[in-house]
């Protein structure tokens, strides 16, 4: 056991940091070719769109007054053609942009998952599982609309705005100035709304993570068992309801943020045609040049074509600002420092002999702590030998076992395998060389065969059966209706503790590691089941270097060397008989163990 570690908290972020925007844009860099094609489609669509008002002006000012039916037919066909082309361009834009957006989301999900796979065990002891799941599911999922449509929306609307302004200037520069007077106000309003939504989005995602953590913990098999047996189901429901109520408030605030401000923009948009008609009338009354009916109608049409993409641009800006809160939460995970890394040129062993040494090892979960978890540990376990580590709870037994497969790195000294510092070995060499069977057996919600093949994906059915026989579990598996295709259930709850342990042992046998670590593998079992599991362990340990973290001392009497840890230091060492002769700590542990072991 190790002391409780502080919960991980993300570093503070500058909400207006432009680096985040640049980093988001870099996510699209691998797809710039497709996005460039989308840009061409958007430009073409914009040119086609602004053609319609000019065609309309020609109909009103020329074709109809002059009764030129041929010209009228061509102009009408032209307007129909622009609608068809716009639809075709829109479908292609949607297809490409959605594909690019989904690929970006896939890249993000994969990057976050890969980053978490590289994190040390310490990170996961400080972080709730629900929080991790929320980052991958809720945060990345919340970006979907923005990521899949933002690039196209920005290019499309920006191109439309520029094209519309140019066309409006060509029609009447004075009316254009009137139309553009209120744009700065629109921009200011949208920025205020975006900043407000970004703040609320950050709070909302944190609340969703908290809810996800409650669901993960309380609705797991273990959580349900604990809640039912403790009579806390109603209390857990009330706690969930309280968290959900807070989320309701944040969702309402998120959706209502800036609604009144944005409604002002909508009102102004609706009033702009009337303003243009009024301005044209005032200009004419003041002796200014007359504006033809066709020009006026075409101008109003262009103006609406300007205001719609302008408002959409502003809305996109608001959504981007809100999404930056989600991107920041994802980037926090991508920027997590990886404590345990593989060196650039790691050492690979074809097959380790299994010689394990601890050389003046020191370790602390808190580098600033004055009382290390392990201190001055010097041990040698020759290839094929066995070491048992015993001691009181909290003495550092499990921590010692974590250092061999590099679940943690030493803070002083070194641990070696075949004379090579484990920090210099390739990760795949460590995984192939060291097998771990712990007290808390983890099984996937999959079939027995799939759980076993997790250790060796290409294992044949005969190899599965041989490993199961060696682990004393084959007969039980074959007695089940579905045999090796039997689903083990969530965390293996369809099997007893002893059966799960034997499945874990069979899984390790398939890997055939030269070094075996048994971390209190039988401590949670009754005496009868322990005997059956111990037979499987004896079969697994034969010919391997074995390090056993012992809770029940009856399982380690035959170890080549027994070490007694006390507050992270080696208090005694020797064989079973030698330690009994000392009549020290080990002898006291043996007497206590004898008193606690029930007679069968």
From TrEMBL:
Keyword Nucleotide-binding: yes
Domain of life: Bacteria
Residues covered by the ABC transmembrane type-1 domain: 36-322
Topology in membrane: Multi-pass membrane protein
GO CC annotations on file: plasma membrane
Keywords: ATP-binding, Cell inner membrane, Cell membrane, Membrane, Nucleotide-binding, Transmembrane, Transmembrane helix, Transport
Subcellular location as annotated: Cell inner membrane
Residues that span the membrane, as ranges: 35-60, 72-96, 161-187, 260-280
Any single GO BP term: oligopeptide export from mitochondrion
Keyword Zinc-finger: no
InterPro entries, per the entry: AAA+_ATPase (IPR003593), ABC1_TM_dom (IPR011527), ABC1_TM_sf (IPR036640), ABC_transporter-like_ATP-bd (IPR003439), ABC_transporter-like_CS (IPR017871), P-loop_NTPase (IPR027417), Type_1_exporter (IPR039421)
Single GO molecular function: ATP hydrolysis activity
Domain ABC transporter positions: 356-592
UniProt similarity note: Belongs to the ABC transporter superfamily. Siderophore-Fe(3+) uptake transporter (SIUT) (TC 3.A.1.21) family.
Protein name: ABC transporter ATP-binding protein
Species whose genome carries this gene: Actinacidiphila oryziradicis
